[in-house]
Amino acid sequence: MAIVYLEYNFKIIPLQPATDILIAELGDAGFESFVETEEGLLAYILKEEWKEGLLDDLFALQHPDFKISWTSTEIEQQNWNAEWEKNFHPIQVGGRCMVRAPFHDPIDVEFDIVIEPKMSFGTGHHETTHMMLQHILDHDFEGKSVLDMGCGTGVLAILANKKGATPVEAIDIDEWCVINTQENIERNACLTIHVEQGTSDLLTGRKYDVILANINRNILLDDIPMYANCLNKGGALFLSGFYLQDLDAISAKCAAHGLEFEKKLEKNNWISAKYVN
Ligand SMILES: C[S@@+](CC[C@H](N)C(=O)[O-])C[C@H]1O[C@@H](n2cnc3c(N)ncnc32)[C@H](O)[C@@H]1O
User: Fold this and answer.
1) Atom of ligand 1 nearest to the CA of 222
2) Ligand 1 centre from 119 Cα, in Å?
3) Quick check: pTM over 0.80?
4) Is 150 in the pocket of ligand 1 (CB under 6 A)?
5) Cα angle vertex 124, ends 100, 11, to 5°?
6) 93 Cβ below 6 A of ligand 1
7) Does one domain contain both 51 and 178?
8) Mean pLDDT for the stretch of residues 258-277
9) Secretion signal: which residues (predicted)?
10) Average pLDDT over residues 208-219
11) Which residue segment(s) compose the domain that 48 sits in?
């Protein structure tokens, strides 16, 4: 049976910060994938996840300073894939890493990563992923054990593994992301990465040198105590998926569990921060 999605086409004035706020709220409301366009945003939700009044309480749509209009159409998965392929251009990070799709030509670069995201988040186009890739480029991963929590497409685990990290574990709550990460691992010949479906509940008793988590403010706040427990002495925790205004709360939670703020990257009000113990 064909999987049917609803595509919402939002026209947004001005684009920022309204687009980022809308993406965060739509993500919480069950939308799975987003493509930023010149005029706004395409957002995709499984038809079976759609509910009457889904958009009624969204702050971004009620904010007097944002002018947001939209249309929606039903599309089958096949068409949806064609849509992102049209919009997917290779992403370059720090002059050393490219993230591209299988239909792009290979690129001569230190870390050439091939990702077919399908319905998963994590191509490097989003600020939160881009900054995590930048952090990974800046950090020494040789021989380090790594957890990629909320792995999406697996792109962070793949770059860490290409930089010498081993063993690497990737976890996502979403079955589709687990399947997609496995496919991307094979595509990039990073066959030692181990993928599992689940949450931080899986982490009891595990230890890592580096933990990468690009999720969202509330899940990070809930899971920081577990991450702190799982981090080896001298380890590093990289967090992403929250806004500048959430940094103090995230840093305070980390500090309460023995993790000291070391540095942050910032892009369009999104923050990606490094903590050490
Ligand atoms: C913002 S995406 C990040 C994907 C990828 N790591 C990247 O950096 O692009 C967040 C991912 O976390 C997953 N996720 C959400 N809640 C989670 C939880 N409680 N535990 C594990 N994964 C979760 C989502 O399914 C999604 O794939």
Assistant:
1) 19
2) 12
3) no
4) yes
5) 105
6) no
7) no
8) 96
9) none
10) 96
11) 4-85
